[in-house]
Amino acid sequence: MENGRWSLRVICFAFFFITSASAEFLIQQVTENNSSYNLNANLGVRTVLRTERPSSKIVTIGNFSVIRDRFEPYESSVFEASGYRWRLILYVTGNKDDGGNNHVSLYVRIEDTESLPTGWEVDVDLKLFVFNARQRKYLTVTDDAVKRYNQENREWGFGQLIPLSTFHNPNQGFIVQNTVSFGAEIFIIRPVRVQERVRFVSNPPDNVFTWRILRFSSLEDKIYYSAEFLVGDRFWRLGFNPKGEGEGRPHAIPIFLYAQGFRPNAVETTTWGAVNLRLRHQLGSSPKRASSAAWYPIQPGHREGVSNIILRKDLQDGYLVNDSIVFEAEMVMVSVTIDEKHPTSEI
């Protein structure tokens, strides 16, 4: 019995030793195989397959087997894109100085910079491509970083564009009939020259409008409009139906504020309007009040207001005098938009 227990202990110890040694060997192999791996090389890199061809450059290499093991880079002819001149730089066995071991590396270099002004900079949204002939799609490689080209940094790309194990695998479809294709798409990011700035102005100039309506008792069942008045960037007007609207019809008097067109040279945008609407008491007591605040769309005619600022039966209590009523609109806040040219970097 003791001999059996001793044998079991020996077997367990041997199994533990072999397992630990195997695990250590596996870890060592992975570490050695990735000793040149650059963590930042693929940080944030995204890949996706797409059917559209690259818009800036495509390089197709036939008889690829002739150069598949070469370490020196292939430089394409110069091509123009977005107003500048460029070259593709291809390392088919990887750029070892950029963490490209066991990968294909691909870059775009800006050329002919001698003609650019001193201190030049070009910001680029860069995408690089490998054609998958089996799927008839382009493997697109990009990241979220803007590439800033300048005199010190004339070349940008990806040291780890695609693993060689994937690229050389005949089942993947990147090398078909001994032919490969690479591409680039270059979009220049130019600083905005005009900034739209929106301000909210409280109690703007000329912000109170008075509308006296005569011969009230003879008015028809339709909407009547005031003259237009300018506050901020827009013209406004009041409107009401003496017979009532909506829930207030026919027992209440409505009042609405309408946004109209824009003053000359104004920036035509959605406009904020906050208004106090009043039906004046013509014998000196307090007016009837309603308030509204809303975005008014660019298209004229949008309205905001109330369908019941006063009941018709209460008009005789000092609001209807000599067959006339008086509305007031006080624009307490409006938005004003301007386009600032050549804005500073601080928004």
From TrEMBL:
Among its keywords, does the record have Signal? yes
| Pfam family, any one | MATH_2
Cited InterPro entries = MATH/TRAF_dom (IPR002083), TRAF-like (IPR008974)
List, for all copies, the residue spans of the domain called MATH: 54-186, 206-331
**Signal peptide region:** 1-23
- Does the keyword field hold Signal? yes
Query: What is the name attached to this protein's record?
Result: MATH domain-containing protein
